[in-house]
Amino acid sequence: MKKNILILAGVVLALSSFSLSEELNDSITKEASNQILGADQAIESAYLQLRSFQSNDNQLMLQEHPSDEMAGPTRGADWDDNGTWRALHLHTWTPDNARILSSWEQLYKGLAFALDAQSFSGITASQKAQAVFLQSLYTFYITDIFGQVSMREPGESVSNLPSKNLSRTEAIDYAIQILEGELSNLPSGTAATSDIANKNAGNALLAKMYLNRAVYKATDADGKPQVGPYTFPSADMDKVITYCDAAMSGRTLQTNYFENFGPTNGEVSSELIFTAKNTNTQGGDIHRLSVMSMHYSQTPSGWNGFVTLTDLYNKFESQDTRLTASVPGFTDQHGVKAGILVGPQYDQNGNAILKRDSPGQLSFSQDFSLTNSTEEKGMRVVKYLPDYTNLTRANNDFVFLRLGDVMLMKAEALARKGNTADALVIVNTLRVKRGATSLTSLTLSNILDERARELYWEGHRRQDQIRFGTFNAAVQGRSTVSDAHVLIFPIPLAKLAANPNLVQNPGY
Amino acid sequence: MKNSLLKGLMVFLTMLCTSLTYSQDVSGTVSDPSGPLPGATILVKGTTNGTQTDLEGKFTIRNVGPNAVLIFSYIGLKTQEINVAGKKTVNVILKEDSAELKEVVVIGYGSVKKKDATGAVESVKAESFNKGVTTSPEQLLQGKSAGVQVTQASGEPGGSNTVKIRGTSSIRAGSEPLYVVDGVPIGGGSVSAGTTDVGVGSQTARNPLNFINPSDIASMDILKDASATAIYGSRGANGVIIITTKKGSKGQGQLVVNTSYTVAKIAKDYDLLTAAEFKAANPGADFGSNVNAFGAILRTALTKQVDAAYSGGGENGTYRYSMGYIDQEGIIKNTGLTKYNLGASITQNMFDNKLKFEGNVKTSLIHDKATSLSDNVGAEGDLFVSAIKWNPTRPFFNSDGSYVKISNNQRNPMDLLDRYTDFTNTARILGNMSLTYSIAKGLDYKIGLGVDYSNSNRNVAMSKLLGIDPATSNEGIAVKSYVERSNYLVEQTLNYTADITNELKLNAIGGYSFQKFSNQGNTFIGTGFGQYTDQKYYLKNMTAATDYAISGGFAQTAYFDPSNKLQSYFGRAILTYSDKYIFSAVLRRDGSSKFGSSNKYGTFPALSVAWKIIEESFAPKIFSDLKFRAGWGITGNQEFPAGAASTLVKPVEGVPTISNIGNPDLKWEQTAQYSAGLDFGLLENRLTGSIDYYKKVTSDPLLQIPVADPSLYATKWANLPNTEITSQGLEIGLNYKLVDKDKFSWDLGGNIAFNKGKIKGLIADGYPTGIVTGTISGQGLSGTIAQGHFDGQSTYTFNLLQFTGFDSNGMSTYKDLNDDGQITDADRTFSGSANPKFNVGLNTSLRYKNWDFVASGYGAYGQKIYNNTENALFVRGLLTAGNNVPAYVLNSDEATTGNSNGASTRFLKSGDFFRLSNVQLGYTFQGGEKTFAPWIKSVRVYVTGQNLFVITPYNGLDPEVNSNKQYNGIPSLGIDYATYPKSRSFAFGLNVNL
Predict the structure, then answer these.
(1) What is the reported pTM?
(2) What ipTM describes this predicted complex?
(3) What stretches of B593-722 adopt beta strand conformation (E)?
(4) What is the nearest CA distance from A470 to chain B, expressed in angstroms?
(5) pLDDT for the residue numbered B196
(6) Which of A45, A281, A297 sits opposite B655 (nearest CB)?
């Protein structure tokens, strides 16, 4: 009996002391990961985050739908999407708008990767400067869209609340200051290497931040944005001019405007300054930026969604090459034109494209109703030409900054300083290249319109309209003047809960 | 038997003590209705003088006074008292105890008689299970037990069910009860792969419990309250279902063969427009043909089933071997399930009954056939959606015999049926073994080992000829997904049973267990199959592919989840005083590798009492049984992903991808439950029943919450500190034996369960607008979320615009709740919950001579159902657009074009229903000597009807529905989208008993 009990006791003990340590299996800890992967990988990861800008769900939508150049009409049992697009165009969004949440997450995730890269000990000076460029870029976008910015130091633990909470007036200076500190460490580059944050990109971003700085500075202590007109300090405008000059060096305007957005834009365009790279083997969803607007019966089959406004369309002279163009290799092969599509639509053989819901040829109308449009309502835009070699993984690079934008920024700064003569020269240089007639005189309003023609659907319009004071005005599809508080977006509710140091923006 | 030596010793001692005062011997035979009874106990009343019968049922008891009373007892038989009255020989036949009194319920690490149970536990035995074709055990329980709500999410063979015991106590996934099969707790989650979205939406995995052959199950015991489930500690909060498989019993070998043949058809069809009606309504879209596309994807489905079991036992052991085969066709073409089961279970007593061995092995092989059916397909449409909206005037075939192709948003259902292949093979083995060593009288040590392993392969392919997306599947696509899951269990218990005094009895158990779960899998994708067009061939030769990636994704994904280990210490003591007062205490301490470093172990206590009022002299005479129960306990829920407490980096194609932010404070969800109940019997237990009241409060609910930005990953797992989910309810179960005669019996049973769930504290935890779920699918409905958990509301409350009809232009109008002149999100309001207010179950069984009849039904009332199918497909504008719709759409005042189908209460319906779920009529031919077939014991033939009718105001196909419309990992409830239709079926079956 004793022996039995001893054996039993042995069995009991042997089988009653297992380890509870966690085996991570397919994952590794962050510390181990940092040791295995160096700064090169961290920088690459940070760059990959830039692809989130080319989504039809993120901040590009916040910059375009509320403006005078994009709307998302509901088409019967199509495109209601819980009223999300309508709310953006009507300026009636609320803090639980899905696109506002996804934009916040997109921008802050990118910021986190830019900060994480800086925490790697083996980082080179050039890599550090590139990571800071990205940090500055995200900080600028967050300042522009949400006002206040939560900031962490590189390597700071996420178990704690962020160590810095920057008001809008602090955030813009912070974004400028960190980039100016690293500008000289950025690598040099050409249009063909515009996917790397080079000196041109650094200068262009600084120019853009100085140009808009007055808008962000005009924010009350409680975060309430002031409606313009804004006072643009002369010193800021001088900085814009200096940085624009540096950003333009080595870049020339592309003769064929739509080549800036074609599948090989990264290879052929001479005016690109900063882009996010896509390839046919590893790329994002940039095709969505054209199929989101194209009709079902076009090639490739679109989603029949977003339209542009007569506010934009009527700004063009008919001969302006930016308005619409038949592009060889596209229009003759697949029927689709580049630019704004209006009126009857044809396939590559000149045959009519038919409507789906009712008999007859598809013909895009200038009018639309936000709440009840039929399938053919509203003018469409194809800016990023479909890459027919791989439609869903297109090679087109997403353009953040390019020469046309920088030229107009410089012209605007000159004009705001009162030097309309030099500004007119720049604007006309651009216009002539784009096939439009030269202007004889120049007002700020002309510059805003030129920016519309040059940069439509590229994600600048809301910012531009705010800077020029036209954002709250009525446009096609919105007959009322909106309240000043919509100049910045609300903080998503979930994010307020996660960080008690954030204060909801006034008016929400 | 193992105690006979000890008993003998005691008898001997007793004799020594008592022989001085008495001298009369009494002897005799004790039998039960079938013959002599060995091992029956005989005791002289008021003394310790007693003995047991020998192998022939004979006994002799010495020193019995002339007027002494002898007590004859045997487990499971009615105890009898007989006055000796001077006789020297007393022969007794012990009768069977009434069924209710001997009913045993399994309570986890042991069992008790139902009449002694202190907690809310219910045992559903095989004979009460639902009849007809069932592929998964929880369907057997539907409507059988108050407070157990089983929702069959769809009519798909092998599809999943939702089981809720006493309402909802979690908001994230993992709120299913814990299943324990033959002592082995089964890990939560699916054992088979869902599918990668290859252009027709993603598809859900199969039901993980399908591997058990329902005809192998002896009983399913449901532990409802915390006093019962606390023995399972951090996994007990959602209730526990203990599945016990059939074992052999002593006696000659017995062979049972069951076979059945079932025919099923769609129970309710959509009243879609015919070609003629469609043409009249939309002449512009007339293509001249006449087809019924939805009808064309349906079929009359046949199910063949055979199972056989051979069982028996000798003096020292028992055995049972079983096999099962079922081949079930689904009513949608190309769907179905074929399952093979093999099982063995043996018990063996060794070394003079000092050592007992028990072993069970259950194996299964399941072949699931599926087609393009999805819970979340959008504008592109799966087979169901494509067929529903197919213009009935459009032919399927061109004049050259090729399929008519229209667009990515209107696929030809015949084309899709033909050129889409989806099947899954799942093998699973569950085995357990235990040795019990009897250390001393009443003291047993048991060691058990359990292994559960499954391995599943899902194969999905689309032919290049389908041309769903010109960029990818024009080239053909094949996807193979592999999932391997395993868990092993080591368990040791020490069980002690003793009569401390005559009046006070103790039953105690202490134990240790360790369980480890693993989960891994991978997906391999091939595209670009060049000239090869047969998608079935793609799956046989993935190397025929020229490319191995799809849009925005990777060719190969693989995962191996962090380990999930659970180490536990547990104990339970049940004290019975005077057979009137029963007190039970449970304590379990669980340590989990999933918990954060600051909360490695949790303690889960429970206390409960029972008072058998019937044993009191003052018990009202009207009662034949009366017991009061009350209990309290704390249990947990730890069904969150392994690794959730750690920051995880998973390199994917060389890129380190953060998949979680760590939280060292992470712990289980905690549920405290108070409950009280009354078990009663009236009219000599012809009317029996229970009434239970409970209140559950779940605190520290687990959720993925946002991390303060900037952060590399947006969320972490955390316990919400202020949020509480309460669920309270009343359950009544009744059973009435209307007739209880030898040749004729008739039972009527019913149950009703009221439940009210509420969540509060969300605002304090930073969710002023709730935690939302319920993604509405369909064209134009992106980003629509219909449901959520809102502070102060019932769980699963719909939050919608209030539809007020169509205006004169046929446009939808809604209530402008904030009077701002616009209809925006701010005008949404709470519109009812998907939780039923009460559930009912009704059963009856009737036996007359050799005839038997059973019928069961169940229902649910007070819940709302969101008809996402109608929202996405059945609006007037879509008819104009060339889609087919049900006839009622024509009669609506909706504009023929231009009206938005935005989500609103327009599509929210009452989900009340009562279903007659199954009816069976059988006739038994007795075999045996003097009959036509002496080698047969009995043959029973039967017919079964399943899902004979549903009474409901719901306008969809079936109100018992639960499409998976989760959002951010929060499950939804009560949304109907393109749900696989339920069938009505009739079966003919044969049971042969040899």
Answers:
(1) 0.84
(2) 0.86
(3) 601-611, 623-637, 648-652, 655-660, 669-682, 687-699, 702-706, 715-719
(4) 23
(5) 61
(6) A45
